[in-house]
Amino acid sequence: MPIEFNHERNIFSLNTKNTTLQIKIDRFGYLLRLYYGPAIQDPADYIVRSDDRSFSPNPGDAGLDDRTFSLDFLPQEYPSRGTGDFRIACLQVQNADGSTSCDLRYVSHEIRDGKYEIPGLPAVHATADRAETLVIIMEDRRTRLRLELFYGVLSERDVITRSVRIINRGSDTVVLEKAASACLDLIHGRYDFIHFAGSHNGERYFEKNSAMKGVRSVGSKRGVSSHQHNPFIILAEEGATETAGRCYGLAFVWSGDFLAETEFDQYEHTRVVLGIHPDEFRYPLRPNEIFLAPEVIMSFSAAGFTPLSHNFHKTILYNVCRGEHVLKKRPVLINNWEATYFDFTGDKILSIAEQASELGIEMLVLDDGWFGNRNDDFRGLGDWVANEKKLGGPLKDLVKKINELGLKFGIWMEPEMVSEDSDLYRAHPDWALTIPGKEPIRSRSQLALDFSRKEVVDNIFDQMCAIFDSADIDYLKWDMNRSLCDVWSAAARSTEQGTVRYRYVLGIYDLLERLITRYPRLLIEGCCGGGGRFDAGMMYYTPQIWCSDNTDAIDRIFIQHGTSFAYPVSAVGSHVSSVPNHQTGRSVNFDTRATVAMAGTFGYELDLSDLTAEEKEKIKQQVKDYNKYWRLIRTGDYYRLSNPAAGDRLAAWLFVSEDGSEGLLSVVTLSTRGNPPYDFVRLIGLDPKRMYRFENRILSGSALMNVGVPVPQAPDEYQSWQVHFHAV
Question: Where are the beta strands (DSSP E) in 173-265?
Fold first, then answer.
């Protein structure tokens, strides 16, 4: 059974195909984390030790004489402040009497068929026969603050999810100052802390930090999950590789502020806590009110990073993303942004569409500048009405002409933003997040709308519906081009301002849910200055996200390499752009740009009229190749065959079909020198006993994986080599 309860020992066992997580209710009602790792049958409560540890406080239940029981060194399931545990906590409150103690004890539990849902929040979904739910109820007896700890077990995915529901059953308001979603306590072993850091135009680079005494943390206070740090982390046994070593992964299903903390304590125990960032979070919970913490997805691999990545890829693709586009082929598109920026007319867009149609491209996406008085980035946001003068007529007429060329049509919007030079702002200046009497902090010369207010979300929804109802629109690029500052809502009391950031994200989710319900065939691509909100929360609504505003193929190798540790290729928006690249000035050959973009949703972002006849012929072939391989790329297992972040001379990655019958190998040389050594790539994931036609040879899977294949000598740096092979 996925979830079992041992009544004699008061132990919960959460079992997946390859892993077990065990939790014990101890004699005082505290929840202790016993074990999480490879599947076991035995109860692991024998690891719990009782000792008189110097300066470790003992709860009153232990009595005056027992100094051997202390939460300061015991592994816990959901630690709270005020229990004598001085390590990082999940829960911190301020009670009505000013105290900050919250002493949570076990009350009851329930085991259910199916996977729990979280009203208003994204969460892993599964059919009733594919998951089970455990709910453990805890309560502070003094204040009657109640917690319901939710666990979802997806056995076939080797995934366990976590969420928390907090209910004030007392008679006084309790202020939540920190309410994290999950904790992972490990009582032995040294683990590297791996996270994915970066900046705008350089997101999700692989970062590894060795264990050290103290606390390390990464997070975001920008209102979005951010370009700087991603809400996915790994704890990896020292020396872990792609195919060896114990690894724990935690992904936060949330698109706002977050904090991931890890502490290596005085007794060499490791604790990880993941949840909403507590800075600027202060949530008054009145009697009978409920707070819902977002979900965390957890998975464990005993065989390195690759199986861990596969667990997350499949879970996000099949159990987070929703809608008809998850498994359908997505159209190869061209976006006009880097071809025209704001300088376009309807005739120019139609000319791009005509050229695209001749090359086999399947969709045109009209980017920023089509609405209101938007001819630059100083004005127009919030006025989602087509500029018919610029487009040469109604939007529906332009769309119809593009459809007649055989192309679908997509459009760009930035729903969360407003320009001060806009009709919306002039009518409703209080709808922007600003502080009265203070000059606003602008970014990209724009302000953020207060999405914590229903009337604001309703207005934007109505404007968007008017556009989607006016023309045959198949695709929406949802952008968001600034971080949140001056987070103050005119609709919230002074005591409620600490809830605005949380409720802002709920407003985004509400708008997205309404859109996909009303327009189920609409494909939405998320974007936040590129990859500034690349998280599993957004993927619940937008099955693909623009991976980075940086379209340089070589930089994208590093960005997509880091991204691949958690997120499936199906979620990676990736395009072929022009050279010299607009972000880096680097020139990379056309074939390599396409090879890199194929490790994503694939499309183009350039001026087709600038291309040579040879390049246009290459586009025709690239589109054919992608249409031939898209299913393998979308649903195949993804393998990292090199580590460019560690200075490898080449980048190599591989897609292998789930049945092992075919693969697509891609290699890009990152450097070159005179009289170079030969490079070899060993493949992974093949059937060692099957024979494969690899170029002009028939080789066994064993040979391809153990001997490897030689990479052709490259006449220059940034050359690519792509091989499709299949079993014979």
Answer: 174-186, 191-199, 202-209, 214-220, 232-237, 247-253, 258-264
Among 253, 334, 327, residue whose Cα is nearest residue 539: 253
Token pair listed for 324: 């008809």
Q: Report the catalytic residues.
A: 535, 615
Cα–Cα distance, 9 to 25 (Å, whole number): 8
710: CATH: 2.60.40.1180
576 pairs with which residues across the strands? 604
For residues 281 and 203, state if they share a domain. yes
For residue 68, pLDDT beyond 90: no
- The answer to whether residue 328 is domain-embedded is no
Residue 561 — very low, low, confident or very high, per pLDDT cuts 50/70/90? very high
pLDDT digits (tens, 9 = 90+) for 700-728: 999 999 999 999 988 888 999 999 999 99
372 pLDDT above the threshold of 90: yes
Whether residues 390 and 256 fall in one domain: no
- Give the pLDDT of residue 59: 86
Prediction pTM value: 0.97
DSSP per residue, 144-159: -EEEEEEEEEEGGGTE
End-to-end CA distance of the chain: 40
127 forms beta bridges with none
Q: How far is CA 338 from CA 78, 91, 144, 334, 602, in A?
A: 48, 46, 57, 10, 16
Domain carrying residue 584 = 333-635
CB 170 within 8 A of CB 287: yes
Query: What is the number of structural domains in the chain?
Result: 3
**Beta-carbon-side half-sphere exposure of residue 582 (alpha carbons within 13 Å):** 15
The answer to whether the Cα torsion of 611, 617, 618, 621 is positive or negative is positive
Distance CA 94, CA 602 (A): 50
